[in-house]
Design the sequence.
């Protein structure tokens, strides 16, 4: 729909040979509205518009495209470039076990994603185990156990009074046949000092090969602050964007990528354990532009 | 890029950033600021304080008076909680059950999320915490059957309040919306007027999609109000402005944490104050 909006903006450009600063202004306004409507962060939008303007001004209007289409093409290219060129595989261990740790806000989809990732790596020949490092949420361990049961893999749940760190260390010790451990942590706020320190402690004790930030695709402007909070205090290697099969445009993907520079590696596209896909930048870019 | 404060920006650019960053959305922000520019005199426009207070008034005008209370009449008063995945429905039911228990009411819980892993186990923990019985079936059971059993049990046991927990679902999944419609039909057949409350639980961190959620759920299921959770953090839930403006739905409750007491009535002036900070 952005292309159509820009078509009307550029209707008056029939016959003009170049994109000028003036005729781009109105196009930039439409693009700004489209990106903000898609939940891309305000400051990121400003940055993107600046880049698009620089690239677009003075460009020859290509014979094959209308000026509106051309500007959209430039924006699309900028988005894809920002999101990273292609699917980036998470880092795995050279000596087993590979340890993944999932972190993020409450309700973002960590526990479900832990199950999905286990299934994904099973299909790649690994033997994963799940670790329930959330002792707070009611029935959190039970939730992960049910998923583990569904996959036929072990789940390490907290023993009475056991801290998350001790549960994880015990899992590493006890995992005989498992060469892959996926740690599900409790949802927490980036501003909760105590819980962020808990994550720092887990990281120090386990040295995970991959710390993944699990984020809800419908997240709004706060995506930047949340991502920065987790990245600055814990360190994020990659991002999983969940609930992407709905009509959320997913601008948070752009915001997070711009804010912490880490790749989005997977997207969640459903509630079942097979609903996980590697992330393709061009698809999200098209979705954000509408 | 995110820490440099640009010099020489006028108040309008500052306000635009403030409101958009609070998730009000670009169009609503544009309209609000345009309205202020038109309504205020040129001398008023010179005073940032005057502009801010006019903006505050405008937002309060949209949000309307403080929340009308929850409907607790009826034996039982039935609350149907719904919303997309992970917004805090189950936790809100736990907190609400606690509040009603503190008021001396008899509370029954219906575990009508028969889909998600350990959903009824999660609700059971809350039931034990607050002293409320729970009606549940086995995983995969028909949610409407759970609800029907729960209402029958509520009537038989003289429960004052029945809180119905449903599975999270995206508003774009029509078969899952149908499932909720069936639950409402079942309730209405048991006794007209049930459920007395149909509450959409929204996550404060959600961006513009919150408006699409509210629109679809309201159109399909006729909501009686909204609950907004996770307001204890940095998210400002500005999308509520657009929702209330378009649909006039009352905001009945807010979640301000994960603890049993972290439930409050919606206070418009406190909300607007936090939004404009
Ligand atoms: N539609 C959809 N739902 C999802 C997806 N991923 C997770 N969910 C759902 O989102 C809800 C929350 O998922 P959880 O895995 O419990 O989230 P969490 O991050 O572990 O939550 P906390 O532990 O409380 O922080 C559940 O209803 C999941 O089924 C997805 O890709 N699509
Ligand atoms: N910080 C904060 N966390 C909350 C609040 N309300 C709920 N949560 C947390 O959000 C997460 C999800 O809560 P649930 O009650 O499981 O959400 P739900 O909507 O029932 O999820 P599904 O049934 O899977 O769709 C849990 O970790 C809760 O503790 C709140 O007001 N503030
Ligand atoms: Mg979890
Ligand atoms: Mg629930």
Sequence:
């Amino acid at each position: 729909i952005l292309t159509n909006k820009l078509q009307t903006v550029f209707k008056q450009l029939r016959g003009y040979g170049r994109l000028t600063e003036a005729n781009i202004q109105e196009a930039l306004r439409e693009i700004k509205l489209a990106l903000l409507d898609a939940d891309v962060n305000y400051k990121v939008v400003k940055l993107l518009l600046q880049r698009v303007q620089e690239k677009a001004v003075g460009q020859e209007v290509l014979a094959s495209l209308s000026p509106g289409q051309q500007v959209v093409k430039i924006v699309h290219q900028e988005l894809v470039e920002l999101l990273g060129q292609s699917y980036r595989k998470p880092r795995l261990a050279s000596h087993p076990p590979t340890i993944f740790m999932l972190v993020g806000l409450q309700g973002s989809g960590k526990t479900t994603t832990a199950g999905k990732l286990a299934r994904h790596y099973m299909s790649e020949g690994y033997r994963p185990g799940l670790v329930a490092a959330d002792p707070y949420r009611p029935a959190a361990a039970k939730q992960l156990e049910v998923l583990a049961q569904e996959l036929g893999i072990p789940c390490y749940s907290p023993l009475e009074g056991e801290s998350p760190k001790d549960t994880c260390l015990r899992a590493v010790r006890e995992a005989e046949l498992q060469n892959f451990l996926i740690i599900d942590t409790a949802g927490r706020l980036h501003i909760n000092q105590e819980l962020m320190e808990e994550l720092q402690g887990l990281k120090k004790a386990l040295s995970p090969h991959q710390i993944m930030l699990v984020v809800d695709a419908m997240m709004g402007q706060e995506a930047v602050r949340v991502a920065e909070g987790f990245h600055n205090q814990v360190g994020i290697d990659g991002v999983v964007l969940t609930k992407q099969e709905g009509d959320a445009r997913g601008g948070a993907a752009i915001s997070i990528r711009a804010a912490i520079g880490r790749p989005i590696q997977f997207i969640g596209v459903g509630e079942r354990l097979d609903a996980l896909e590697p992330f393709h930048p061009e698809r999200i870019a098209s979705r954000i532009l509408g | 890029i995110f820490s440099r404060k640009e010099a020489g920006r006028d108040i309008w650019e500052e306000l635009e950033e403030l409101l958009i960053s609070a998730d009000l959305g670009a169009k609503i922000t544009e309209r609000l600021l345009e309205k202020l520019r038109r309504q205020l005199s040129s001398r008023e426009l010179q005073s940032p304080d005057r502009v801010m207070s006019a903006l505050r008034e405008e937002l309060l005008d949209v949000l309307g008076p403080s929340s009308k209370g929850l409907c607790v009449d009826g034996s039982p008063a039935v609350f149907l909680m719904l919303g997309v995945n992970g917004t805090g429905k189950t936790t809100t039911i736990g907190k609400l059950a606690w509040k009603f228990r503190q008021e001396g009411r008899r509370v029954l819980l219906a575990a009508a999320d028969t889909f998600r892993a350990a959903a009824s186990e999660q609700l059971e923990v809350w039931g034990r915490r607050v002293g409320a019985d729970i009606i549940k079936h086995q995983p995969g059971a028909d949610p409407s059957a759970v609800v029907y059993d729960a209402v029958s049990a509520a009537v038989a046991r003289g429960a004052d309040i029945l809180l119905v927990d449903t599975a999270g679902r995206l508003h774009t999944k029509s078969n899952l919306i149908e499932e909720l419609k069936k639950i409402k039909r079942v309730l209405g057949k048991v006794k007209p007027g049930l459920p007395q409350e149909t509450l959409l639980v929204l996550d404060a961190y959600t961006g513009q999609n919150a408006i699409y959620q509210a629109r679809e759920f309201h159109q399909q299921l006729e909501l009686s109000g909204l609950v907004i959770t996770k307001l204890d953090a940095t998210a400002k839930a500005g999308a509520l402005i657009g929702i209330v403006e378009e649909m006039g739905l009352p905001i009945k409750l807010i979640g301000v944490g994960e603890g049993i007491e972290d439930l409050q009535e919606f206070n418009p002036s406190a909300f607007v104050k936090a939004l404009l900070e």
Notes: The first strand of chain A starts at residue 98 and ends at 103.
